[in-house]
Design goal:
The complex is a heterotrimer. By secondary structure, chain A is α/β, with parallel strands linked by helices. In chain A, 38% of the residues lie in helices and 20% in strands. Chain A has a single domain (24-243), classed as Thiamin diphosphate (ThDP)-binding fold, Pyr/PP domains (Rossmann fold), CATH 3.40.50.970. The relative contact order of chain A is 0.15. Chain B has two domains: 5-192 and 227-231, 3-Layer(aba) Sandwich (Rossmann fold), CATH 3.40.50.970; 239-350, Rossmann fold (3-Layer(aba) Sandwich). Chain B has helices at 9-19, 35-43, 57-69, 80-96, 122-126, 144-161, 171-175, 217-236, 255-270, 288-294, 311-318, 340-350, and strands spanning 5-8, 24-27, 50-53, 74-78, 100-106, 137-139, 164-170, 177-180, 207-208, 239-242, 249-252, 275-280, 282-284, 300-305, 324-329. Chain C has two helices and four strands. Chain C starts with a strand and ends with a strand. Chain C has a two-stranded antiparallel ribbon with strand order 1-4. Chain C has a two-stranded antiparallel sheet with strand order 2-3. Chain C has helices at residues 16-20, 54-58; strands at residues 3-6, 26-28, 40-42, 64-68. The chains are: A alpha/beta, B alpha/beta, C alpha+beta. The interface between A and C is medium-sized, with 29 and 28 residues.
Chain lengths: 247, 351, 70
């Protein structure tokens, strides 16, 4: 018998702290698979952020630096400028990237830093207990928008993949999801494309991945997974928003 | 004879940093340190270095974090309000034990304050200006030559102790011109950077972090940092003694205030008063032993600062029990820099 | 014949594999594993499993291995 599906080498064989049905685990695996496929494990420096993604170093068998909240793209800039021969990616959540780290992501993107960014959007602050995020959908109840997000009070969910695609420094920007096998296969391709952009020296690449946070959404894993398709994919359209090299 | 240059203090810092092998500068404009990023933007490309004007003070110091994590010598510079913004990352780097250099050409505060020379950032610099209870190495140059020499020393000590280092200056030492004798970085044995991120490269995984959640982990980490601070105190305290051996009154102060005080001490000597100057060069570690020892004999200390009294707290903790510590300070602002004559008046008051 | 192996000790019982399987060959166990979850169990036969690996792809915990004839 031949094993046709196995754990990627870049992903440690350990139990994660993620809740049942949390898509972080899936996205971790897709990133690790891409690192394996391109033979990057030995030359990668991962940039962890703050939130449920903070433990990158416990789950990936690669060199990692853990950064202050939102600052991963600035730290990645420093790493990549000092070691342009290394593969550098950040892995950030929506609170980290789209709120406190807005300046850092926009300017790293605008400078066209040769880094790749994996952005996990689950419309909430997961680790701190489900507060409202910039990506929280209208009407969505969170622990800090208890009656639902209202546009006149809290503004609108922010579409980072589209926003960044408007910057000349961005070479690749896409949004994917992992809620169905089909979407997951697309997500895999988009992550690999983003990594190819850096590997081939083609500039800044960004992949937003929609993710479920069953615990903070007050849903079981199946319901949360369904919500990604039913609500999130409606507002956050999947697709490629920029692909300058046509990869 | 060695070549002498007439340069500003801020340029001396840049020259010292490049001579020390720093090839990564990340900064953001703020007065009165703008000649540092301007110089670096011009000169870094000539030494195959990297200069980035970041989107903020916060981003620039986090870029330093990234470059430093690869083992490279990296620095940023700013002035007081900008240093406040950098404090988040400085706390992280203290926890991560990352060597790097932060230059504070400080200005007056609080808030936007003003752009005059000030020593209002002493507490912020030496007491751990960010959260969590940590220290960084703080060096206080009082001359253009020291701006150069201490910058080189800062990079070495930062690596030896795996700690962020700060040069704490102000507009006086930053903007004035004095002769500088450039020289190669002194040979100093430096530890291997077996912690630096490089991509596994066939070796063991390395990671750099400041989060410790395991039972007892964070306490152990903090005791380790504490032990490092104690070792620095024992080995790296530096100060300047000027005419202290027979002094009946010792004036103290750091940086630009110490320069003015030194002139006042010389004026006092001309009048036959036995007055000396004890100038801390390292503010952290504070040279407590130097104060303890000198006040066994000399019982009068006059501390002069460009603030309402900050370093004086460390002086009081350091002197012999029966020594008197007097303070003369002026919080800075336009027209508030004390004159040597003014300090001489204070010397005579307490002599 | 293709087959899957579910690591019951890693399974957090999210059940995403059950909706991924085109042939609905995975169900949730009545037993509680050492993490406190009801793990997924393969209930089909090797004849039914095609080794498509969609269950494993969807598993957030990389708890499923898939084997196939060469």
């Amino acid at each position: 018998m031949h094993q046709v599906f196995k754990r990627p080498v870049s992903l440690k064989d350990v139990q994660t702290h993620f809740c049942p049905g949390c898509h972080h685990g899936t996205i971790h695996r897709l990133v690790a698979e891409a690192l394996d496929e391109f033979g990057l494990q030995q030359e990668t420096i991962g940039i962890a952020s703050i939130g449920c993604s903070v433990f990158l170093y416990y789950y990936f068998d690669i060199d990692v630096i853990e950064t202050p909240h939102g600052r991963a793209p600035a730290v990645a800039t420093g790493v990549k400028r000092a070691r342009p021969d290394r593969f550098v990616f950040t892995y950030q959540g929506d609170g980290d990237l789209a709120a406190i780290g807005t300046a850092e992501i926009i300017h790293a993107a605008n400078r066209g830093e040769h880094i790749s960014v994996v952005f996990v959007n689950n419309t909430t602050y997961g680790m701190t207990g489900g507060q409202m995020a910039p990506t929280t959908l209208l009407g969505q109840r969170t622990s800090t928008s208890p009656t639902g997000r209202k546009p006149e009070v809290e503004g609108f969910p922010i579409r980072m993949a589209e926003l960044l695609s408007g910057l000349d420094g961005v070479a690749f920007s896409a949004r994917a999801a992992v809620n169905t096998p089909k979407n997951l296969m697309d997500a895999k391709k988009q992550i690999k494309k983003a990594f190819r952009y850096q590997g081939e020296g083609k500039g800044f690449s960004f992949v937003e991945v929609l993710a479920a946070c069953p615990t903070n959404w007050g849903m079981n894993a199946i319901e949360a997974n369904e919500r990604v398709g039913r609500e999130m994919c409606e507002y956050f359209k999947l697709g490629t928003f920029k692909n300058t090299a046509g990869l | 004879m060695a070549k002498r240059l007439l340069v500003r203090g801020n340029e001396a810092i840049c020259r010292g940093a490049i001579e020390a092998g720093c090839r990564y500068y990340f900064g953001y404009p703020i007065t009165p340190q703008n000649d540092i990023p301007e110089y670096m933007s011009r000169e870094m490309p000539n030494v195959n270095g990297v200069f980035i004007q970041a989107e903020s003070e916060i981003a620039s110091v986090n870029m330093v974090m990234g470059a430093a994590a690869t083992g490279a010598r990296a620095m940023t510079s700013s002035s007081s309000p900008g240093i406040s913004l950098k404090m988040e990352a400085i706390s992280y780097m203290a926890g991560m034990e990352l060597p790097c250099l932060i230059v504070n050409i400080s200005r007056s505060g609080p808030g936007l304050g003003g752009i005059d020379a000030s020593q209002g950032d002493y507490f912020q610099a030496v007491k751990g200006g960010g959260h969590g209870g940590y220290h960084i190495l703080v060096l206080a140059p009082a001359s253009i030559q020291e701006m150069y020499d201490l910058t080189m020393l800062a990079f070495d000590l930062a690596e030896i102790y795996r700690i962020p280092a700060m040069i704490l200056g102000d507009a006086v030492v930053g903007q004035m011109k004095e002769p500088l004798v450039p020289h190669p970085r002194p040979d100093r044995e430096l530890p291997a950077k077996d912690w630096a991120l490089r991509g596994k490269s066939g070796g063991e995984q390395r990671y750099i972090k400041s989060l410790y959640l395991g039972d007892g982990e964070l306490e152990a980490h903090n005791w380790k940092l504490y032990a490092k601070y104690q070792e620095m105190k024992a080995k790296e305290s530096r100060w300047e003694d000027f005419l202290t051996s027979d002094a009946d009154l010792i004036v103290t102060g750091f940086g630009s205030a110490a320069r003015i005080a030194k002139t006042a001490v010389m004026m006092a000597r001309e009048e036959g008063l036995k007055v000396g100057l004890l100038r801390p060069i390292t503010l952290f570690p504070f040279p407590s032993a130097a104060f303890a020892e000198r006040t066994l004999r000399c019982k009068k200390i006059l501390d002069v600062e460009l603030n309402t009294g900050q370093m004086v707290e460390d002086v009081r903790l350091s002197v012999a029990r029966d020594a008197e510590v007097h303070f003369y300070g002026r919080p800075s602002g336009t027209g508030s820099l004390p004159t040597p004559e003014e300090i001489l008046g204070q010397i005579k008051k307490y002599y | 014949m293709p087959r899957i192996e579910i690591d019951e000790l890693r399974c957090k019982g999210c059940a995403l594999c059950t909706i991924a399987c085109p042939k609905k060959l995975i169900a949730m166990s009545e037993q509680i594993n050492n993490l406190g979850y009801r793990p997924a169990v393969f209930e089909g036969t090797e004849v039914q499993c095609t080794g498509c690996a969609l269950c494993a792809e969807m598993c957030p915990d990389v708890a499923i291995k898939v084997f196939k004839e060469q």
